[in-house]
From TrEMBL:
This is ZF-HD dimerization-type domain-containing protein. It comes from Olea europaea subsp. europaea. PROSITE patterns: ZF_HD_DIMER. Pfam families: ZF-HD_dimer. Residues 30-79 form the ZF-HD dimerization-type domain. InterPro entries: ZF_HD_homeobox_Cys/His_dimer. Coiled coil: none annotated. It comes from the Eukaryota.
Amino acid sequence: MKECQAILKSDDHTSRSSTNSLFTIRTVRYGECQKNQAANVGGYAVDGCREFIPCADEGSNGALTCAACGCHRNFHRREVETEIVVRRSMENGQQ
């Protein structure tokens, strides 16, 4: 499952004829399950679930439960990719 978040920052103090916009795009992916299934007997064993698959649509009760292993999303490894994009716009419509 992937989630995307975009953050926009504007820098207007550089020049009156141009505007710099800085976009930070974060993509979040939840990988393999790391829940220790044998913790109650003092061992260590994971179930082999390779990727978080939500049981239901985003915003509903089942969105945080994995359809493959039944664990909460917090047991899955969180991988974040960050991309920074700078866009310079001129007042007369040029970029």
